[in-house]
């Protein structure tokens, strides 16, 4: 199957400080990919860069193709058509991601007008249908509400409805549940999973929580310090994590059953982006480090079908933990 | 909503009473109008007679009480210099002042706001730096200095425009520019920072992410939000339409309220000074009320805040 969206060697730097150091990633039609990693590892920046949403001071290089057409640094008119139309994005804090001075219906209708040419009563009827679809109670009245009159969870549903307005082929959900409380989190994740199936839409779910991604996605890409360090199907990443960082992330998840055990934290901290180690960025924190790790950045290598990891010690590591 | 504005109205009234009281006390403590108007050499009997005539021999609180009860009958006192009603004297001057301050306000709005928006949209560019350098120059030069510089250049050196007086519209050009430049500079800086604040908000990124063209993001999403803080400063400018030209009127010998104020203060013409201050306080307070109303119109968060919180803490 050909990829819907392909990122090749995508790199971003702000004022000379690298934030993203070469991302290669492909999203197939209809698939759900999770992207995990700690704050600042570049999960969000990857997609903001791909869609040209970073501020002007960001320097973006590499390639982003949508159906084989290059979209990185495309003309504003081209980007405006595909943003919200073919690739939609929702964000972490729904309350501040909606314009406080416009009614919710107006904000959704704007997307309907831009991407489907709907105006007036037709747009309003479609907006109401979308509100119903994402489970906003009393949809007709909510269209006339302002963001501050709704809860965080309801606002995130509005954001999702707005993202669906353009009938996108890919939805990027950037930490969509981080600002919400736990019960609402589960509802929003279920909603995203259901909508993806019903609309046959690809989903990229960005999260710092491997557990969240495990529930909603087929495949996961683990990021560390501006790179993808491991990429594998969900089941495989839990069964046979190849990269020591992935292993550390899994160790930090509390088990839902079995005996209570102390959660294993990864020692040390993420390196300063202005002073990246010459070799593997994880080497200073890595329990399996060897001298070779500090010489050059490890290439991403195939571990198994659909499983890649960027670690010199991947096989050895696997052998130890198998 | 009604209770909210009842509360604001009451506060406005209290503000005005305080301004008038303060002016009353300070003016009476800071010099003897009888001596100033009659001259120091006047015979003591004449000075005493003057004091009796204007009620200046009564205790301060009696004068204050009489003054206030007169206000409620619409009597703002008479000028001690020519005996005409103070209100008439002041109102005569208002059109002349407005002839300067209203065009100046238009200059401030038409230059300041677009300049601020442009600078914000091209942040850190050469254009931005240029606009901000001009803005800093514009509001750091005191208006009397700018006024005199303009006179020197356009009246004395080039001879294009008159240096003072009120004979024709050409006489208004230099004072209007002098007034407008400082305000435009302040407004440009204010608008720029309001725009920058708003452009950094997540909802701007959302608008771009859903495919809204940049121009429509600026007009439809950023400006309505940036208008909220900008309205505050514009309201202040509207509030100072009556008395915002004291210095400029003096520099350009423009017979407006500001010059009347300077002359009346120098002469301790109590009723006239108090009348002007009352008028100034009333315009300022009125424009603040209008600003509060506009906040409600511009910001739905405040609107529902008003409906649920009659104390008006939201404003």
Automatic annotation (TrEMBL), chain A:
SMART domains: AAA. It is a peripheral membrane protein. It is found in: Cell inner membrane. GO terms for molecular function: ATP binding; ATP hydrolysis activity. Its main location: membrane. InterPro entries: AAA+_ATPase, ABC_Ni/Peptide_Import, ABC_transporter-like_ATP-bd, Oligopep_ABC_C, P-loop_NTPase. This is ABC transporter ATP-binding protein. It comes from Plastoroseomonas arctica.
UniProtKB/TrEMBL annotation, chain B:
GO terms for molecular function: dipeptide transmembrane transporter activity. GO terms for cellular component: plasma membrane. It is found in: Cell membrane. The chain crosses the membrane at residues 12-31, 98-121, 133-160, 172-190, 271-295. Gene3D superfamilies: MetI-like. It comes from the Bacteria. It is a multi-pass membrane protein. It holds the Pfam family BPD_transp_1_N. Keywords: Cell membrane, Membrane, Transmembrane, Transmembrane helix, Transport. Residues 94-295 form the ABC transmembrane type-1 domain. Belongs to the binding-protein-dependent transport system permease family. This is ABC transporter permease. It comes from Plastoroseomonas arctica.
């Amino acid at each position: 199957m050909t990829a819907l969206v392909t990122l090749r060697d995508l790199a971003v730097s702000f004022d000379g400080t690298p934030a993203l150091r070469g991302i290669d990633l492909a999203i197939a039609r209809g698939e759900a990919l999770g992207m995990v990693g700690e704050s600042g590892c570049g999960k969000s920046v990857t997609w903001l860069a791909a869609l040209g949403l970073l501020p002007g001071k960001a320097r973006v290089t590499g390639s982003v193709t949508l159906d084989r057409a290059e979209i990185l640094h495309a003309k504003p008119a081209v980007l405006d058509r595909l943003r919200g139309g073919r690739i939609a994005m929702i964000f972490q804090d729904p309350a501040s991601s909606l314009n406080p001075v416009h009614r919710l219906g107006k904000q959704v209708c704007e997307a309907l007008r831009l991407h489907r040419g709907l105006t007036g009563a037709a747009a309003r009827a479609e907006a109401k249908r979308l509100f119903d679809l994402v489970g906003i109670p009393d949809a007709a009245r909510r269209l006339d509400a302002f963001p501050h009159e709704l809860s965080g969870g309801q606002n995130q549903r509005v954001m999702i409805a707005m993202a669906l307005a353009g009938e996108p082929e890919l939805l990027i959900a950037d930490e969509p549940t981080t600002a919400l409380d736990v019960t609402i989190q589960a509802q929003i994740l279920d909603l995203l999973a259901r909508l993806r199936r019903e609309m046959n839409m690809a989903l990229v779910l960005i999260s710092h929580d491997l557990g969240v991604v495990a529930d909603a996605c087929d495949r996961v890409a683990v990021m560390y310090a501006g790179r993808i360090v491991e990429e594998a199907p969900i089941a495989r990443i839990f069964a046979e994590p190849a990269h020591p960082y992935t292993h550390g992330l899994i160790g930090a998840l509390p088990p839902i059953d079995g005996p209570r055990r102390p959660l294993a934290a990864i020692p040390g901290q993420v390196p300063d982006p202005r002073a990246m180690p010459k070799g593997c960025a994880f080497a200073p924190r890595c329990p399996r480090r060897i001298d070779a790790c500090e010489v050059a950045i490890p290439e991403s290598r195939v571990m198994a079908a659909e499983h890649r990891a960027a670690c010199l010690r991947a096989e050895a590591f696997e052998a130890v933990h198998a | 909503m009604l209770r909210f504005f009842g509360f604001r109205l009451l506060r406005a009234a209290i503000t005005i009473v305080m301004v008038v009281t303060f002016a009353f006390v300070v003016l009476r403590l800071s010099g003897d109008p009888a001596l100033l108007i009659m001259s120091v050499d006047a015979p003591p009997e004449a000075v005493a007679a003057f004091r009796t005539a204007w009620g200046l021999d009564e205790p301060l609180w009696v004068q204050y009480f009489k003054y206030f009860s007169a206000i409620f009958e619409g009597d703002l006192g008479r000028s001690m210099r020519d005996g005409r009603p103070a209100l008439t004297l002041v109102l005569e001057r208002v059109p002349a002042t407005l002839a300067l301050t209203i065009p100046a306000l238009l200059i401030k709005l038409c230059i300041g706001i677009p300049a601020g928006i442009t600078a914000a949209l091209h942040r850190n560019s050469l254009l931005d730096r240029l606009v901000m350098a001009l803005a800093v120059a514009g509001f750091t030069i005191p208006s009397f200095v700018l006024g005199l510089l303009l006179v020197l250049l356009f009246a004395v050196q080039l001879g294009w425009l008159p240096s003072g007086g009120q004979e024709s519209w050409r006489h208004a050009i230099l004072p209007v520019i002098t007034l407008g430049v400082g305000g435009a500079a302040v407004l440009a800086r204010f608008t720029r920072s309001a725009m920058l604040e708003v452009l950094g908000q997540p909802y701007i990124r959302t608008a771009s992410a859903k495919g809204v063209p940049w121009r429509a993001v600026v007009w439809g999403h950023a400006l309505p939000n940036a208008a909220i803080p900008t309205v505050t400063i514009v309201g202040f400018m509207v509030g100072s339409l009556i008395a915002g030209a004291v210095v400029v009127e003096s520099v350009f010998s423009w017979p407006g309220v500001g010059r009347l104020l300077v002359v009346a203060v120098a002469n301790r013409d109590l009723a006239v000074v108090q009348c002007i201050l009352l008028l100034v306080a009333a315009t300022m307070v009125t424009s603040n009320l209008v600003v509060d109303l506009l906040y409600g119109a511009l910001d739905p968060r405040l609107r529902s805040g008003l409906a649920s919180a009659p104390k008006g803490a939201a404003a």
